[in-house]
Amino acid sequence: MLNNLTGFLGSKGGGIGLEINPQQINIAQMSKQGQQYKLIKNVSKEVPEGVYEDGQIVDSLTLAELIKETLKENRISAKNVATAVPMREAIIRIIPVPAELDEQELRDMVLVHEASLYLPYPREEVDLDYLKLGYFMDEDGIEKVNVLLVATRREVTDLYLEIFQQAGLQVDVLEINSFALIRTIREQLRQFGSKEAVVLVDLEFDSTEIAIIVEGVPQFSRTVPIGTYQMRTELSEAMGLPTSRDSDLLQEMSLVTATEDTETSQINPGMSALLKILGELTDELGRSINFYLNQSEDLEVAQLLLAGPGAGIGQIDEFFTQRLNIPTMQIDPVTSLALEVNDDITAFKRPGLGIVLGLGMREV
What we know:
This protein has 364 residues and is an alpha/beta fold. It is 34% helix and 30% strand. The strands form 4 sheets. It has a 6-stranded mixed β-sheet, sandwiched between helices. Strands 13-12-11-14-15 form a 5-stranded mixed β-sheet, sandwiched between helices. Strands 7-9-8 form a 3-stranded antiparallel β-sheet. Helix 10 links the parallel strand 14 and strand 15. The protein is globular, with a radius of gyration of 21 Å. It starts with 15 loop residues before the first strand and ends with a helix.
């Protein structure tokens, strides 16, 4: 399963991984020799204000032109691309179905009959994909197979396809961003057993995506409207600085933890503001974990993994460990993939590369 997370369209195609989000576009061009990955090119370009509103793309033409210009500036000639839609745009469900069904019967049951039970939209308004997972015996002794169902509104997938078409690119993989992230850290996930849940926390620009994963498969997902933009805004206001979209301010921060001088946050208003908003995020995260555990039997949360551009903040792993009493670590996809890179990538930026590297891996 960890090797085959599904996408809405296509398979690997020798192109590039390209992630778009409200803060920037990220591009990864990779190669592979044997089991060794090499990052040939990794570039980012800031997305100007007005392209996104409330996390939604509202100026697709400007975004397409930005993609085209960035590829040209960096002499990237690939015409095929793997990209991803945000997890908040997706519906992800695990459905048990009879194991005796042949492939056509399974497809009809999942995409025609079962899907309508889980979709808040009419069937004709969504794009669907599915993947068979493991077999099991239910409580009545009947053999069944779990099927991962993934859906998103067709207007969302059509918008993404249109943007890349306008940029002169062919989309041969379109998947959910959390699936790309899981692909990047799959070796880390293999160390956990079937009764151990991993909480993947992706701190993005204007939101944080939470996915609870068991055996490499997302079992629960939620998006919280707190991201690096909100952190920077609170920090800037507290310090009397103009609000900025760049990450320089956060890059310079190192969080105060309970083992340090507790008066520091009172002396430093910026730190106090940052800890306040991270405390709100921690509360939401704790509620999500408790909700999932209350629905599940014999499961424990073994690890919390931090990803995304907000995960590079100094000592943020210690902050979550202390607040939630769950072992927490920042992901480092460069190390976990034993990735050969041409240029040095700072520790602050590495957790934010998880999605784009996972997309790049689909293309090699």
